[in-house]
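Working notes for the structural subgroup meeting. M.R. asked for a predicted model of this chain before we commit to crystallization trials. I am recording the input and output together here so anyone reviewing the notebook later can reproduce the run.

Input as submitted:
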Amino acid sequence: MDSIRNIPPGAYPPGMRARFDIIGFDPRGVARSTPARCFPSNAARLRFFAGVPLFPMTRREQALVIAKNAEFGGICLRRNAAIMRHMSTGNVARDMDLLRRALATGG
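Returned structure, recorded in token form:
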């Protein structure tokens, strides 16, 4: 949603703005939509992922990334279990469909 809020006013042509409403959507657990917080600080997150390659090239690096992501998922689940039960591609698709219907019917 912030990406929509931060778009400069002239980014869309006047004809487009006159014809369409520009909206944003934060999926559950993201940004302004009750964000999942897995670490108490950004510094803690950086420490946790220190030494983990962004783009694993070898089998060893791939195994490290897989193991670290599994550990990360466990940490996130312990700290955010209530919201994470509702964070899935299916839930996002249903939420977007409800948003689409609400916009189509005006309410």
